[in-house]
Amino acid sequence: MHETILILDFGSQVTQLIARRIRELNIYCEIHPWNKAPEITSNVKGLILSGSPFSVKQDGAPKPDVSQYTSKLPVLGICYGAQLLAELHGGEVIRSTHREYGRANLVSVDSSCAIMKDIPTDSQVWMSHGDTILNAGPSAKIVCSTSDVACAGYQLGDQKVYGVQFHPEVYHSTDGKQLLQNFVVDVCGCSQDWTPSQFVEETVAQLKSQIGNDKVIMGLSGGVDSSVAAMLIHRAIGPNLICIFVDNGLLRKNEYEEVLHSYQDMGLNIKGVDAKDKFYAALAGLTDPEAKRKAIGKVFIDVFDEESKQYADAKWLGQGTIYPDVIESVSVGGGPSQTIKSHHNVGGLPDYMKLSVVEPLRLLFKDEVRRVGRSMNIKSSILDRHPFPGPGLGIRILGDITAEKVRILQEVDAIWINGLRENNLYNEVWQAGAILLPVQSVGVMGDERTYEQAVALRAVNSTDGMTADWSRLPHEFLAKVSNDIINKVKGVNRVVYDISSKPPATIEWE
To answer: What is the pTM of this model?
Structure first.
């Protein structure tokens, strides 16, 4: 029952950033769909209303009765949330003559307002709205303005109810974290006591109570999430955790052997299973990305089920599910954030497996998972690994998958990733990978004309994967990597570098 800030999600693509900023302040918070709001318990200290793709002037826009909250809790409305609060309290919201999007600077700040403390007058903020607040209601007072938006922020009378038309959660709002801190610490009174070490202590105690002397089986992937989840469960129940590491034939070059060895060094009770042929057979002829994901997920469950039968007394399945997986897999009524892709580790198990699920990380973001891992002294070679998709190279080979295509991409990927490491660039990017394109191009090698594969290299900078920008790597480095790939990987004669950002592109190609 930690002190908690509730966030009601109206479908903004950056709602998760609100939660991450608050978590960075060592304050626990939860995101809930606006139409599935939980009961207010004694540990809830405040409420934040998110932005939304909706307009408050739009028929069918979500308009819950928030008076039940404003009468009991401090409330902060962001963008749509601010416009909703204004309209519900007698204010006037109108459609803007032009969409207000991008950077702006405050020109006036009422520093006597609690949420505006230590916010400079010229602070940069990020606008993203098609409506604007003419007035926030008869009791409201304006607490900040920009040159184009007179009511950029307001407070409703003497209530602890505030609204801002900009997005303090995004990095473009240079003092946005300060504003959120003002709200959750100064206004809501949160004590900032939610730390990684405390999370470990409480989670291990909870796991011991939950699992007792039962056995848990868990599929490990070699990634950060499953590794940290496994160590938490291991701390609670020791060798009663049975880990299974499946080689699906879609891992990076030599990854199966290297990761298996790392887990053994960590003291985990682990078994490796070579199932490459089963995955290749199930993927034969499939080209649709979602069909490939589902085929990979099905075979994994089949293999895992077959192996788990050797541990018939196991009652639990451990999973490395993290908070973004949970949020993105929950449909928020009223049409907000769309499901971009299916997640293989959310949504339960086939009925025949008869195992209860234990997910010790399901309320953590990726950066929090790493901090928890460091507090348990998990080595950096695991914690600092780039994110790697659950379906592995299966979604980095565009089109159908064959063992030969996997070989080519593994060789390309190894040169790319090793090159980043050798040039001290690996930790300068958030994620990197190679993509085998479903095209061939003409080339010349020596006196021979070639007609071989093209590959794309991808490297992005991000904090959480929700938005990402392509990495500006040195041209000399890219030239050397390209030359090494073409000279050393049989079957490739062209290398391109992906300079797309997210949005509008995604990090992965499929």
So the answer is: 0.78
